[in-house]
Amino acid sequence: MSIPLVRFPLLAIDEILRNMQYSEIFNISVCSQRMHILVRRIKFKQIVKMRYVFKAKVLQVEVDEHNGTRQFIVATSFGRVRDTTNCYFAHNSNSEGMVKRSVIDHCFGVFQRHAPIVQLQLVVDQDLGFVPLLEGVKEMYMLGQGMSVEYASIFYPDLNCLRINGTCKDGDRFSGVDYLFFDRAGNTANAVLQTFTGRYLFLYESRRSTKDILQFCRRWKRNEICQNVRFLYIDLIDSSPDFDPERFLAQFETSEWDPNVRPGGVFDGLPAMIDVDKFPDVNTDRFRDFQRNDGKWASLCMLDCQFFLIAWD
Amino acid sequence: MSVENAPVVDVDEAAIPVEKKMYYRFESNDKKEFRVSELAIQQSETLNRLVEAMGYTSEDVENKPAIAIENIDGKTLKLVFQWCEHHKGEAIPVDDGSVPKIVEIPEFDAKLMDIDNGLLFKLIWAADYLNIVQLLNVSCKKVANMAQGKTPAQLRRVYLLPSDEEDEAAKRAAQEAQDPRAREVEEEFEERKRQGGNSFF
């Protein structure tokens, strides 16, 4: 059963296209120049984020909508025989560069111009020569073993959010990124901590000692370090066996956490790639309030291997 | 005087004049006549404006000829008016673009649109022409649903999408139809080529 789409009135064509899934819109937009033009007329106001995922020999494009749902647009794989579906296409390896570029350009024309945020997810162990440069990338998620972050700092210097899931050197290249997340900070934690000028910093698996954190707190109090920080989390690989959080906190002049005075919402608007689900509730009496020399208030909490600092606006 | 202190008056309800429901008469292009309630007509912006502008009284509706709808046939118009009668009194959705529209097809509409694609095509044209927003929404949703799980090649077949070459040929034909002299020149050129002439001039 068929129906002649292009013979409908323009208003109806718009309405029909608006009611399709993104993957169907993508598919129909590649059918002809005319369909491409018709699809480009549609304003996808519900899109808040475009996500390009480069993983091994697969490129996958997705969108996030205002209501929090994630929708799939298209995926292409190269050099592997795999069943294709209506939105999963296999290509010859020889055409990898060209196909990736075409898919990205096409998605840009149809969807990305409506998306305020563009996120790039990248497995950096692969040959990055086949990863075309993308326009407007503000968020980046790098995965891989022992990665060089040079790629991101050279090609995407204006990132707003970066998550690095792998051991890396030169993490301090991104000290100006507002949301910075290291899954395996290791030895780079110290350099990042010394130079960070963004707002949210997450240092998992940091190779630092509780003494270092004490030193950090003193410097922060003197307003010498992390002046703009709103939230800081440090997870230590090892803590001293005789470490006593109470004694640690006793080194500062602190007062009891007052949930009525300190507003919540510290994680509101956090990019979705930053996962805070496992964090303890920050609105508890585990936190102690203390004041920076310039009068700014912060709340801090020291557990066995975890340190939290929330600076209040 | 407060409401509580107002005198109680017995009202003879039968004596209150009840406003008579008005039914307008419409005629399709194949001369089929339909009687449609005033409230149902409100679903169509085009018809609503038309009857307002005509300013018919109850007598006019009965005595004057049915309002002709020239470009919609009886079969399609029957579906349109069935839909309008079923949804009469419902608010007409306003799309200001601020919130993404989510269209659900109600059971009645799904049954009404259980028709062949030729008639569905005409129904969408009618909904667009008569400016019946919600009917256009649900009928377009039905057409959009045909794309589910389809590859580009399948979509081409389902929606009868012309290829670039076909579009180009159609465009040329339309241009030639607009300008018959261009076609003559083209034919003359082809003829000369067949005769072996190298130059048109």
How do the strands and helices of this protein lay out in sequence?
The complex is a heterodimer of chains A (313) and B (201).
Chain A: H1 10-18, H2 22-29, H3 33-40, E1 47-55, E2 58-65, E3 70-78, E4 88-91, H4 96-110, E5 117-123, E6 137-143, H5 150-155, E7 161-165, E8 179-182, H6 188-195, E9 200-206, H7 210-221, E10 231-236, H8 245-249, E11 255-256, E12 288-291, E13 297-302, E14 306-311
Parallel strand pairs in A: 1-5, 3-4, 5-6, 6-7, 7-8, 8-9, 9-10
Antiparallel strand pairs in A: 1-2, 2-3, 10-14, 11-12, 12-13, 13-14
Chain B: E1 23-27, E2 33-37, H1 38-41, H2 45-54, H3 58-63, E3 67-68, H4 74-86, H5 107-112, H6 117-129, H7 133-145, H8 152-158, H9 164-178, H10 180-194
Parallel strand pairs in B: 1-3
Antiparallel strand pairs in B: 1-2
Summarize the structure.
The complex is a heterodimer of chains A (313) and B (201). Chain A has 313 residues and is α/β, with parallel strands linked by helices. Helix content of chain A is 23%, strand content 27%.
Structure description:
The complex is a heterodimer of chains A (about 325) and B (about 200). Chain A is α/β, with parallel strands linked by helices and about 325 residues long. Chain A has a domain at about 145-313. Helices cover about 25% and strands about 25% of the residues of chain A. Chain A has eight helices and 14 strands. In chain A, strands 4-3-2-1-5-6-7-8-9-10-14-13-12-11 form a 14-stranded mixed beta sheet. The longest helix of chain A is centred in the N-terminal third of the chain and has 15 residues, at about 95-110. The radius of gyration of chain A is 24 Å and the shape is elongated. The mean pLDDT of chain A is about 85. In chain B, α4 crosses α6 (about 115-130), α6 (about 115-130) packs antiparallel against α7 and α9 (about 165-180) packs across α10 (about 180-195). In chain B, a hairpin with a 5-residue loop joins β1 (about 25) and β2. Chain B folds into two domains: about 20-150, Potassium Channel Kv1.1, Chain A (2-Layer Sandwich), CATH 3.30.710.10; about 165-195. A three-stranded mixed beta sheet of chain B has the order 2-1-3. Chain B is mainly alpha-helical. Chain B is built from ten helices and three strands; from the N terminus they run ββαααβααααααα. Mean pLDDT of chain B is about 85; it is low at about 1-15 and about 195-200. Chain B is about 50% helix and about 5% strand. The N and C termini of chain B lie far apart (about 100 Å). Chains A and B meet through α1, α2 and α3 of A and α6, α7 and α8 of B. Chain B: InterPro entries: SKP1 (IPR016897), SKP1-like (IPR001232), SKP1-like_dim_sf (IPR036296), SKP1/BTB/POZ_sf (IPR011333), Skp1_comp_dimer (IPR016072), Skp1_comp_POZ (IPR016073). Chain B: It holds the Pfam family Skp1_POZ.
